Amino acid sequence: MQKKILASAAFVLLACSALCGCKYALQRGMLDGAYISTARPAISIAARDMPLMASGEGMANLDWSDMLGGLNIQMWLAVYGTGGLAPLAVVAQADVPQGWYWDGILSLPFSVDRGNENFNGVGYQACTVIVDPSGSPFGGLITGVQPAGQPQLWVARYMAARYNFNNSKIILQYMEPLPEGITSLTALPLGMGDFLQQFAQRARNAFVVQNGPARPSGIKTGYIQGINWTRMGTNFLGTVSRFDYWKD
Questions:
Q1: What is the pTM for the complete model shown?
Q2: N or C, fewer C-beta in 10 Å, the chain?
Q3: CA 231 vs CA 76, 146, 160, 170, 201: distances in Å
Q4: Cβ contact 167:10 at 8 Å
């Protein structure tokens, strides 16, 4: 019943938008170093004190879904940092096709420090996890191998919220190289008991989230480079479901 109500509400909203003939079309892209969406949601997000490394739109594919050939997910991304072993901040917006919705935001496998972060009055579900760059869509933008040849692991704070009747998801991810001596986030070395708390604070402070401008001009669009789309799966995006109305 809840799925049917959400589907009906989403349909009515889209129909009203079309009938109203909105003067200002939906825009998404980059403006003055920030990711901008003028609607669904109207939001502006940037990394604090980090240069923009790459930005643009792209298409992910959730090949686990029951759609033949997978389910295409439209994405807009902004990646901040300087590469190498410097911190990396990722802003992502992901939209599902009509008839689908994002499932509830669940904690990532093997994640710790689960909780909620508040950005501009909206709750983002959060967790912290160890990331191997070889399996990350952003692995090509950071150092993944140490000089001696061992894998360079990273620690990431993942924060996400759903918008627009669960059709759209905003994901914020902050990453740093995993400190030497840490091999597990559930059993930290002596003297590093406050690492997770301090890391979560740095991740929280890494992003500036505000309401998006109503009538922006000069938004830059294009396709992002340097992303490994074959690694852009449920570990970053989460899972989706189909509304009952759209099932055969």
A1: 0.88
A2: C
A3: 16, 21, 18, 18, 27
A4: yes
